[in-house]
Specification:
It is a single chain. With 633 residues, the chain is α+β, with helices and mostly antiparallel strands. It is 38% helix and 20% strand. Strand 6 and strand 7 form a beta hairpin.
Length: 633
């Protein structure tokens, strides 16, 4: 944590410095856990790499962003280490054009192997040393799955084009040739050349806030000395401005979005402090956010130092900031201690949902945290009702499948309820002591479920057979459903919400319901608790009383539109069309298209018409999920 005097100096400098203030880490980076010199690598079914033989430990990028050709082109220089006797290193690539490979001493032989579904190809490079640097000249393709190129018309400002990346789970290989496995951590540096008037940002320390002269416009340099899994290497390029929020926090976005975005996040600095109070120093230096154009496929992405966020969280009332708490929590769970393979995705997300809730409790109080837990329980019950039993356990077997298929409520919510069960059983103080030690002991290491179990058995259970039996850990991790010690959260606020639902069902006009100063979570529960069948008159009453079709809060609007689709409620169709064509967040688009396609002659043509209009503005991650639903591909 920074001393108050340094905080005051940093804040004063940042507030007066415009964009240049964002890049220099004026706040001293906390001394964190040591980077291990020896790492036990785990076989990853979603990577061609063989890190036990030869591995990448640093990536240095020198790339040009060509918006006319929708291409990144240049060189990736990789620092590698190999075991004695090794004569090759294997990288992951997908839809990359490789133009040549060399060492500092000259060209190197290489071969490109056969394509595997969703995994791409192995790039096998002959190496004449056990330690050295290789240089790969390459270019991306316009349809690279990690990259989305936007026209000016697809941005908020409409002035310049835009580029952003999304690497999780295994898409970094579509824009960087490296060992694309979460268990193979790498530091990185970069020089990114962009057209004049544009700014590049990355998930790393910005070394040249104003850029530097380049024949193609401006170039920006970056460096990240903390080793990270490759999916956390991220880039954004566009008409981007910056505003500080605190001494070590700030927001980047398009100039037309900057004031609204900054006003949405005044508590971010307090969130960082609350997180540190819980589980130790924030080791990444700055915590900034990049609010992206609306096509970003996720709510947020925990890229180190620079969370990528959807503009759908800009509600105007600071009501959706739990997403920021979630991405911040990843700075410990996921970015510092990372699942070794995607079979154990719950180790990233279950821990993060638990941690997020603790941050929200510290900032907004126990009642808000309890409401969030109750909504998570509802989401978890829906997932358990829909998913096959093989996908209901925390530890998954995803070999031969796209790892995105494991990114369900099970990893997030069942994982969090498992940790809450441990906390409730052993006491919060004791659990917090273990969890803080867990982050310290396992920092920068690939983590597996087996390693997690070994750690908790050694440092928390400590041979207590009765406690081991009470926790039912194997049942939580390896079996479907929920064990008998799972406890449903109870929210007093939601009890009051349910009373208003019953009043509406019994005939009370919507305008006479006691909704008072409900927060987002209460509205979500209200919408989720309404009867499965309502009349058009009831739907119109709700919409007229609460302005649901015009809701500026994306979570409330989504909940309402799901109800409208199930009831084939025509008056909500304009709002539905505007929502689906105006953003590409998969959390919202996918359920709505699924619901529309289930409504036969009413919903299917509507889904197909809206999708064909919206699809060009969606990210490949979103279309990859929606195409099979709407187009049958």
């Amino acid at each position: 944590m920074i001393r108050p005097s340094a905080l005051a100096i940093a804040a004063a400098l940042a507030l007066s410095g415009g964009l240049s203030a964002c890049a220099t880490t004026l706040a001293t980076q906390a001394a964190g856990p040591q980077i291990p010199t020896q790492v036990q690598y785990v076989a990853d079914a979603h990577s061609h790499a063989r890190p036990e033989i030869a591995r990448v430990h640093h990536v240095d990028l020198n790339l040009m962003a060509d918006f006319d050709r929708r291409m990144l082109a240049g060189t990736a220089s990789l620092d590698i280490t190999a075991e004695q006797g090794a004569n090759e290193i294997i990288l992951d690539i997908r839809d990359l054009d490789i133009h040549g490979v060399s060492s500092d001493d000259g060209p190197l032989d290489y071969t490109i192997g056969e394509e595997s579904p969703f995994m791409g190809k192995p790039l096998v490079i002959a190496i004449p040393f056990t330690e050295g640097r290789i240089h790969i000249d390459y270019s991306t393709r316009p349809d690279a799955a990690a990259l989305q190129w936007l026209t000016p018309e697809q941005t908020a400002g409409g002035r310049l084009p835009y580029l952003f990346s999304q690497g999780q789970a295994i898409l970094t290989r579509t824009w960087i040739p490296t060992q694309d496995s979460p268990g193979i951590r790498q530091t990185y540096s970069a020089r990114i050349s962009v057209p004049e008037g544009m700014t590049a940002v990355m998930s790393a320390e910005m070394l040249t806030p104003q850029g530097e002269p380049d024949p193609r416009g401006r170039a920006f340099r970056f460096r990240l000395d903390n080793p990270v899994p490759p999916y956390l290497i991220a880039i954004g390029v566009g008409d981007i401005a910056f505003q500080p929020l605190g001494a070590r926090t700030g927001v980047y976005t398009e100039p037309s979005m900057l004031q609204r975005s900054a006003a949405e996040f005044p508590e971010v600095e307090a969130m960082v402090e609350a997180a540190e109070d819980l589980y130790g120093p924030y080791i990444w230096g700055r915590y900034d956010m990049l609010v992206l154009p609306p096509s970003f496929p996720f709510g947020g992405m925990e890229n180190p130092r620079l969370t990528f966020a959807t503009p759908t969280i800009i509600a105007g009332d600071r009501s959706l900031v739990s997403l920021v708490a979630h991405e911040l929590a990843h700075s410990w769970s996921g970015n510092l201690v990372t699942n070794a393979t995607w079979d154990d995705f719950w180790l990233n997300e279950g821990f993060t949902v638990y941690f997020e809730n603790r941050i929200m409790e510290a900032i907004y109080g126990p009642e808000r945290a309890e409401m969030l837990r109750a909504l998570e329980w509802t989401d978890l019950q829906a997932a358990l009702a829909e998913l096959p039993e093989a996908d209901q356990s925390l530890h998954l077997e995803l070999a031969g499948r796209d790892p995105d298929e494991g990114m369900t409520s099970i990893a997030y919510d069942k994982g969090a309820f498992f940790l809450r069960t441990i906390e409730r059983t052993v006491s919060r103080d004791r659990f917090d002591g273990w969890l803080r030690g867990y982050f310290d002991r396992n920092a920068y290491r690939p983590m597996t479920t087996a390693m997690f179990l070994a750690d908790i058995r050694e440092h928390l259970i400590a041979g207590d057979a009765a406690l081991e039996a009470e926790l039912q850990m194997d049942a939580w991790i390896y079996r479907p459903g929920l064990p008998s010690n799972a406890v449903q959260p109870a929210s007093n606020a939601f009890t009051e919400v349910e009373a208003q639902v019953q009043a509406f069902v019994n005939g009370t006009p919507a305008a006479q319901l006691n909704t008072g100063d409900w927060v987002t979570q209460e509205w979500q529960h209200f919408l989720g608790s309404l009867p499965g069948t309502m009349t058009d008159a009831q739907l119109a009453d709700l919409d007229n009383a609460f302005g649901l079709s015009q809701a500026g809060n994306s979570e409330i609007l989504f909940g309402w539109l799901m109800i409208a689709v199930r009831h084939q409620y025509d008056p909500a169709v304009p709002a539905l069309e505007q929502f689906l064509t105006g953003m590409g967040r998969r959390k919202f688009t996918q359920p709505l298209y699924v619901a529309l396609m289930a409504e036969g002659d009413w919903g299917r043509p509507l889904a197909q018409r809206i999708y064909e209009e919206a699809r060009p503005g969606y990210h490949p991650i979103t279309t990859g999920s929606a195409d099979p639903v709407v187009r049958g591909q």
